[in-house]
Structure formats: C-alpha cells, structure tokens
Amino acid sequence: MRATLASIFVLSVWLTPMLHAWAQDSHQHSHQHSQAAASTAASSPSASKALVPPVSDWRATIDRVQRAGGWKAYLREAQQPTASAQTPAAILRLEEAIRLTLEQHPDLIQRLVGIDLAAPDWRRLSAEQRQALVTRQRLIHAVKTQFYLAQSTQEWAAIQAEVYEINSIATELSTRMRKAGNLNALHLIEEQLKAESALHATVQAHDRAVQEQEHLRQIMGFAAKLPALERPTDVRQHPIATNSVRTQLEQRLNELAQTEPAPDLLARLSQAQQALSRHAMRAQQVEQYQHKILPLRKQLLDEAVLHYNGMIIGIFDLLKEAEHQVQSVQKYLNASADLLRSESELDLELTLLNAHLAQIGRAL
C-alpha cells in the first residue's frame, strides 16, 4: 500500500521543486511501515534536478514502483498493465509543432526573409511585411493554444488511469474483506461504484485527449498521425512575463490610451489591456497552487500517513487522500496550461497593436 502512495509522489516530482522535496519526505515516512517504499525513494531524481523533468518517463517509473511494492498483487490477475506505463517511441515538442506548421506556408516564410523576427522594427516594415508578421503570429498562437490544450488532456488521461487503478485496488481489497466477513455489503458497493465511475472518467479522458490531438493535427495541416506530445514542465521554465514587465507594459498601454486615440486604436489598446489582465490573473492562480494549495495538500497527506501508521485511520482513508493529491496535481496542470495560453494570447495582441501603431507612425 505504501508503494501506491509513493507512486502518487513520483507523479508529482516533475511538477515543481517543492513537490520533489515533499515526495522524498513522504518516502521517509513510508519506510517506517514498508521496505517497498524505501526502494521507491531510491528511484527519485536528485533535488538538484528538480526544475528539470526526470530523464525517464514518470509512467515507467510508476510501473517500476508498483512492481517493487507488490501492491498490484491485490488486483485481479487478468488485469493488464495500464497504457500509462508505456514509453512513447516519438515525442512532439512545441517548437517542432510550430516549425512544421510554418513550413506549410512557404509564401509567408518568403515574405519574412530578412526581418528580425525576434525584435522587428515595425515602422521600417512595409504594409505587406507587417501583415505577414501578424499572420505568422496568428498561426503560432493557434498552434500554441491547441498544443497546450492537447498536452494537458493527454496528461490528464494518464493521471486518470492512475486514479482508476487506486479505485480498483480499493475495490479488490473490499471484495476480499467482504468474503472474510470483515466488511459490510454497503461499503463494498460504494467502492465498486467508485471504481466504475473512475473507469468511465478514464475512458472520457482518453477520448478527449484523442480529440484534442486530432484538432492540433488539423491546425498544423499535418497529414500523418501525430506522435505523443512532450510532457508539460514547470511553468517557471517558460519565458513568462514577470510582474515588473507586466507593470511596465500596463503603464505604456495606459499612456497610449490617454492620448485621445482614434476609436480603432482605442479598441486595439483595450484588447491588449484585457489580455494583460487575464495573464496576470492566471499567473496569480499558478502561484497560489505553488505556494498555498499544494503545500497544504502535502501536509494533509503527511498527516494521513502518520495516522495510518498509528492505526488511527484505515487503508481506504489513505487511498482517498492519495486520490485527492492526484486531483490537486491535475488542477495545477490546468492552471499552468491556462497561464501559457494567456501568454500566447498576450503575444498576439501585442503583435496586432504594434502593427496598428506602425500604420500611424507610432511605436509601443
């Protein structure tokens, strides 16, 4: 049972440095009760690599943890290993997806030859070149938005499979305890219903992941089936605008709005300000998960482990808390994906604003 808890923490390790440290903590607690958890802790990446996802896929790591802990013995012998334990042969990264998409538009690439795409001088560009930059940014935004969505749904499908496995273990334990006369029929039925609900959610999550990846393929104009997408990493590895950068940008937008701009420019400024506000709100949500919600969830899980070791709570309570931990991880993933999508939206709005300002001889 301790290996189940350990597998949840292995899942959380690559999300944030904090979760990495917490996982090592919980492995130490679990060692007091089971040698299986001690072998699990040895497979965790070092703290110095906390900001970088582990080299091996977490799904394969979880599978090794499960085999080492032996808790899969509680599952039916006929049950096959989940697809989450398989390592994909090929990985599609965001940068590659953007490159493949842009290659579908050779005429656009030709019009952008000689332009510094990282920092274009908008006022020196022709109207055709400015339009080409806008078109390029729209394509990038479409790919980024859908990539982050497909990425999060793909990850959720794998996480949901772990939730189903936890519920399957609880159901199998309940069945055996019922046969031994140590559990009433009501509790058994409740666990069976939970397992069936988790299976239904797992199927839905898989279908959603397939749909979103297909939508990404259509946006990219890619004929072949796409490989699995790279796993999401800590959002702090992405060039997200800092609070100071957002403040400076907000001040500049306010300055432009106070110059009595024409209605079309005022509308463009308003769109940029709204995108900036949404980005700031998403960043605040991610920070709340990193510094408040996840630490509190970790404390609850630590207390549950201590209570279980002291025989204050049972295994079903411990499994329930482990499931809650997984759900918190998923919400953090969603918040991170929302932040990255808002970053892409802000980039697009600033590109549109720059193009508009260049038409009237002004600059952002």
Task: Summarize the SSE layout with pairings.
Blueprint: H1 2-13, H2 17-31, H3 35-41, H4 58-69, E1 91-92, H5 94-102, H6 106-111, H7 127-179, H8 185-220, E2 228-229, H9 243-257, H10 263-309, H11 315-359
Parallel strand pairs: 1-2
Helix pairs in contact: 1-2, 1-3, 1-4, 1-11, 2-3, 2-10, 3-4, 5-7, 7-8, 7-11, 9-10, 10-11
Describe the 3D structure.
By secondary structure, this protein is mostly helical. The protein has helices at residues 2-13, 17-31, 35-41, 58-69, 94-102, 106-111, 127-179, 185-220, 243-257, 263-309, 315-359; strands at residues 91-92, 228-229. The protein folds into three domains: 1-87; 91-232, Outer membrane efflux proteins (OEP) (Up-down Bundle); 237-364, Up-down Bundle (Four Helix Bundle (Hemerythrin (Met), subunit A)), CATH 1.20.120.
- Overall number of strands: 2
Beta-strand portion reads under 5%
Note the overall shape.
elongated
Largest sheet, order of strands side by side? 1-2
**The number of domains:** 3
Structural classification: mainly alpha
Identify low-pLDDT runs.
Answer: 1-85
* Helical content (DSSP H or I, runs of 4+): over 70%
The CATH C-level name of the largest domain is Mainly Alpha
Largest sheet: 2 strands, parallel
